[in-house]
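Inputs:
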Amino acid sequence: MERTPVWIMRQAGRYLPEYRAVRKNHSFSEMYKRPDLATEVTLQPIDILGVDAAILFSDILVVPEAMGMELHFSEGKGPQFPSPLRDEAALKALRPVDSNQDLGFVMEAIREIRRSLADRVPLIGFAGAPWTLATYMIEGGGSKTFQHAKKWRFARPDLLRILVEKIADVVIDYCRAQMDAGAQAIQIFDSWAGILDTDGFEEFALAPVRRIISEIKRPGIPVIYFPKGGMTWLDRVADCGADVIGVDWTIPLDAARRITGDRVALQGNMDPTALYAPPEAIRDQVRSVLASYGKGHGHIGNLGHGMLPDIPVEHTRAYVDAMKEFSPAWK
Amino acid sequence: MERTPVWIMRQAGRYLPEYRAVRKNHSFSEMYKRPDLATEVTLQPIDILGVDAAILFSDILVVPEAMGMELHFSEGKGPQFPSPLRDEAALKALRPVDSNQDLGFVMEAIREIRRSLADRVPLIGFAGAPWTLATYMIEGGGSKTFQHAKKWRFARPDLLRILVEKIADVVIDYCRAQMDAGAQAIQIFDSWAGILDTDGFEEFALAPVRRIISEIKRPGIPVIYFPKGGMTWLDRVADCGADVIGVDWTIPLDAARRITGDRVALQGNMDPTALYAPPEAIRDQVRSVLASYGKGHGHIGNLGHGMLPDIPVEHTRAYVDAMKEFSPAWK
């Protein structure tokens, strides 16, 4: 491609009126569990924004749910595990997962999306990284302090070690099943990497991700690892086996590229809240992101985190259009 | 001192039974507004833990309160500005502050603490950094997404620029008044530095902090700047004029020291949640922090953020004791 490809994390989401129209009549979990609905919203941004890739509409928490944890999505409060994982008994009660069976609805959605896309753009599948999933499972939901998960990290590293390995086993099976069903790239989201300390990141986040990637790698299917908030650890992250590293907005792309060298491609990194700015300012931001990455292939345009629900669609389109307009000069 | 000096952010806090005994009979705002109560809790950790410095018991939000914003501390929800700053009219309504008058209770507390300390240990005063205070003022309280503050950063940089400069003016006056009253060091807390993008950090966080430090610097009174979450920017942070930079736990001290060189001393950086671990593991963590910093003066022992309320006191004491026991070997 003679320009930088571009897609957006959470490009199928509430900022789109077309998404809200579907959401009005269906619960969030119904939307990701029904392949027809998941297909509909996965395809929306392809036409509306003209992005260069589709990403499966789903949620990283389907994995803990398949492992036996009751999961609720409540309006306003976000995802909740009403019985969070807080002791060894709960850890032992986790079930092994056969993704093709227990998460068959995801594979059906992937197959239906691929049929509907008819190779217009590739489809990215995804999974949560073990540490990030463990955090949700232990906390029971989002958190400001993550005190329960961090307590395990320091006071019960023995249990946390078992937990992330159990999750990694499921994620491996889950990613393989997604690729079998037709996913053409896999992104591993480590949304809470940044709350760890350096040694904890190495042991409980990066090590299981390294194992996952080595076990799922297939020719022609790139793996993207996104350790949000973990930009101080980019040097070691670049050796995790991923083809692409997601970069958040706390480090300029030129600095990230100096650190990672030719080891990986970089994806990102415009601050999602930059899309609050008027379109002309968004175009300036895009120019600056492209200039920061510099010449050469290996850049995937994206934001540094997911789309926010209150961004105007025309601002989002201005971002995608500007990436398409300005990036050929950097090839 | 032939060992590494050690104190702890939020060392006067809820984890101490002696603090809770005072808190039971007084509201949080009463505690920081009454010099006798502020003195009592400021001194508690000196005797209980044996730390090497006292830090004024107060709150960074007294500054926006003095600027005219109504402030509530409600149980469980944290600090709230019921009328957050969301438009130009609110920005214009902010009042200039004469710290000795409008924040006289802080200066009285400082004088009373100094008298009670009788030079046993030095007293650290503090202020919030302009960006962090602006964030609270715009959001109206804590936030997960900081969407209002970030909206100003990208959609109304003109207003944000005025706001951080107004706050910086007050912080300069406030820090000078604290030093006049007897503060022997000043820490500037930029707790929300890490939610900014690189350019935004430079313009809205670091630039006003640079101005503050250049205007408040006095011989013999060190200034500590703590840009929490901003560890990817350490190189430029090291040139802000501060004598000491606070380091959080997302970067090892050896890496931080390589980046900052001889420009500044470093304070930190043990993960506060490491104090959930049993004392023997805490001692191992302290050994590892000291080894990571390495030989030479210029290290101030501290956690990478404030004390959590549910840490056992004996774990906290194990941390302080271990710093005292192991650090002489690194001098």
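Strands of chain B lie at 54-55, 72-74, 78-80, 123-128, 185-189, 223-226, 244-247, 265-268, 299-300. Flag for discussion at group meeting.
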